[in-house]
Amino acid sequence: MITLIHGDDIVSSRNFLNDEKSSLKNPVMFSGQTINLENLIRSLEGGSLFEKENEIIIENLLSSKKAVSDFDKIIEYLNKNSVTSKIYIWENQEIKGQVPFKNSLQKVFKIPQNIFLFLDSIKHNNPNAVKLFHQAIETSPEDAIFYMIVRQFRLMLALLEEGKEIDEVKRLQPWQRNKIRSQSLSIGKENLQKAYKKLYEIDLGYKSGGLSQPLLQSVDFFLLDL
Q1: Helix (H, G, I), strand (E, B) or coil at 169
Q2: In terms of Cα–Cα distance, which of 226, 140, 136 is closest to 183?
Q3: At 2, which helix (H) or strand (E)?
Q4: Same domain for 76 and 127?
Q5: Which pLDDT tens digit goes with each residue over 20-36?
Q6: 28 contact partners, CB below 8 Å, separation of at least 6
Q7: What is the pTM of this model?
């Protein structure tokens, strides 16, 4: 069975993959950037005789299509072995259109619209952002939204700093680039850099348990001070 996990809600899709992975015995991991047919065949056909089913996880295979020289042969081989293997394909974006897998199960994780509204509202001196943040956490965990905030600031900084285009920016559509660039200009490069440093401090404190206040309040104050 091939399970395709994708969507723009990367946190939720990753959590789903981790839950699935915890139920597997000994999955073999591949990256779409480095996978090749020879290693894939060796993993599927070189397993133990006592293993009834092979377990494979491949990350970003479809989105790395141009970088995989034997992409079509890999897809053909996966389809051929999907009956006797558990194959998980995880993508860090939504895959639109027809997928090349036969009889696959798709798990699509989309970011709720209210989160996009909140992320778009993050601007200098905009108290409405706090209200939209609280509306957003009604549908998604606050820590997941916090990491989307971090990603939004990372994108804004990358779009202002020429020559430092990151992979996340390369995947953006032109209209998304224009919107985020406009948002970054409204905040200003210096304020963006200070804000990104503050987000790093909040993240570090949250992960280490050293925050002086709950994450929710930390984000509230961060948005009000922007």
Answers
A1: helix
A2: 226
A3: strand 2-6
A4: no
A5: 999 998 899 999 989 99
A6: 43, 54, 55, 56, 57
A7: 0.73
